[in-house]
Amino acid sequence: MGEENKVILHGMWASPFSKRVELALKLKGIPFEYVEEDLKNKSAEILHYNPVHKKIPVLVHNGKPIAESLVILEYIDETWKNNPRFLPQDPYKRARVRFWTSFVQQHLFETMFTVVKTDGEAQEKAVKELLEKLQVLEEGIKEFFPDGNICIDSNNVGLLDLVLLSVFGPYNVQEEVLGIKIIDMEKTPLVYSWLRAINQLPLVKESIPPHDKLAAVLKFMRENALKSSSA
Amino acid sequence: MDEVKLFGFWPSPFSRRVIWALKLKGVNYEYIEEDIPYNKSDLLLQYNPVHKKIPVLVHGGKPIAESLVILEYIDEVWPHNPLLPKDAYERSVARFWAKFIDEKTRTLWEFFQKSGEEQEKAIKNNFEILRTIEEYGLGDKKFFGGDRIGVADLVFGMVIHMLVPLEEVVGVKFIKADTFPRLHAWMKNFSEQPTIKDNVPDHSKVVDFLKTIDFWIGP
Fold it and tell me: Cα–Cα distance between A182 and A104 in angstroms, integer?
């Protein structure tokens, strides 16, 4: 690859934030070098490119670093203007996509995280909150699928699809490890169908890590969190 | 048809940053003061059913919620006096800092809510946050946006109308010429900008408000 337009993604295979950027690059057909970071032993590059957070993902384009996955996704969309466009052209529609993306990221993801890290009453409370918020999402996304038809292909995948996928794409794994039903076909039929549609995309199928590997990571995270909270 | 309305709350920094954006761009709008938190209007609940919060911008009857989303919308619909740079990389830097400052300024409140050892910890944390913002965010620039006020400046602007009154109530001062020289200079430059100067809530009003609130006005 020539030096011009050199793209490097510093990521971590199990991170949803990293995965969404990786998929974005693949969907747009952008050639890139991938650097797998060991989060327990962060590289000098990560510390240099993201001194504020010291986190992945970091996208480096022509030597210039961009951090924060949602910022990166907007950058990618503005720099490589081919399909799929992650955001619509109309400012109001863009605002709606950004609003719901923020909802999925700040509310659903955070609550999901709490469900993973807690047990007993605290977990019950978080699960209740999660299911309530999924209902809110179910209602909210009707504006994107007004006739209930979900038609997602590699040409029209957007920001919200990518973020939803990174949070709930592996819901089978989450449900198995936690022993809780999260994406219920009857309670949230639109969200269920939407996730199915995104998960069927060829590029998504080939990018998702194996079920067992993801389950092991999730179990490990949960065990660690429960151990340290009871210590 | 194209009328603009803003549902806000006068001491809220989230509300304030949207007011500044509209004023900087000379956009005419109707302002609706909401009685937060115990008496929200039916219209607000209708326009923001998901979060039931201010600020909400309504343009031609269509509502937009979440202050950072609103700022991007304003910049796209009224592109003169831009709040974001044209270059995609510079935009990503501006967005990074708007987001970082937005998240961290919520934490800046904690020293006001806590006491004893926890308050000391919160105060120490504030110094660290401000140090990061000064060194990596502002650097040697006049504004976060460079020569002109940008979106990150509007978000950091809470320090002039909210942090200063919080400091007064608690009795501690963070941004001084010797502790944070660049942030200190920023505060002067930002607050002297005519549009900002004319649109800042009255300091003693905010102090009185802080002394009487019994709820957390974070989002």
Answer: 14
Q: Note whether A66 contacts B99, CB cutoff 8 Å.
A: no
d(CA A229, CA A82): 47
The verdict on a CB contact (< 8 Å) between A92 and B73 is yes
DSSP string covering chain A: --STT-EEEEE-TT-HHHHHHHHHHHHTT---EEEE--TTS--HHHHHH-TTT--S-EEEETTEEEESHHHHHHHHHHH--SSSPSS-SSHHHHHHHHHHHHHIIIIIHHHHHHHHH--HHHHHHHHHHHHHHHHHHHHHGGGTSTTS-----TTT--HHHHHHHHHHTTHHHHHHHHT---S-TTTSHHHHHHHHHHHHSHHHHHHSPPHHHHHHHHHHHHHHHHHHHH-
Q: Name B196's Cβ contacts closer than 8 Å, sequence gap at least 6.
A: B20, B149, B157, B160, B190
Alpha-carbon gap, residue A212 to A72, rounded angstroms: 29
Annotate B61-87 with b (16+ C-beta within 10 A) or e (fewer).
eebbbbbbbbbbbbbbbbeeebbbbee
Residues of B with CB under 8 A from a CB of A: 50, 59, 62, 64-66, 68-70, 72-73, 76-77, 88-89, 91-93, 95-96, 99-100, 132, 136
Question: Which residues touch A156 (CB under 8 Å, ≥6 apart)?
Answer: A83, A84
B62-65/B56-59 β-pairing: antiparallel
Residue B140: phi and psi, rounded to 5, are: -95, 10
Q: Are B199 and B154 in contact (CB under 8 A)?
A: no
- Summarize pLDDT for B8-18 with one digit per residue, the tens: 999 999 999 99
The confidence score (pLDDT) of residue B178 equals: 97
Dump pLDDT digits (tens) for B122-178. 999 999 999 999 999 999 999 999 999 999 999 999 999 999 999 999 999 999 999
ipTM of the modeled complex: 0.95
pTM above 0.90, yes or no: yes
Of B73, B93, B100, the CB nearest to A91: B73
